[in-house]
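#onboarding

Welcome to the new folks! Below is a worked example of what a typical request in this channel looks like: someone posts a single protein sequence, and someone else replies with the predicted structure as tokens. Don't worry about understanding the tokens yet, we'll cover that in week two.

Example request:
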Amino acid sequence: TYMIMIQEIKIGEVFEYNGIKLKVRKMSPWGECRKCFFFKEGNVTCGGPKCAAYERKDKNYVYFEKVEEGK
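Example response:
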């Protein structure tokens, strides 16, 4: 399933997406998209969740990291 994220989630914040905990991480402008949960899972194409600096109020590039329980 695909969920459009309307609200911007702050860097460092943990949220739940379809029962999976994800953490918002800051990334460099040249991209670390391969680290992103959405890129790895093929859930969305680039630009799905608000991850590009021009889409975000904080003007940072971010990626979404799966939070492993017990880590």
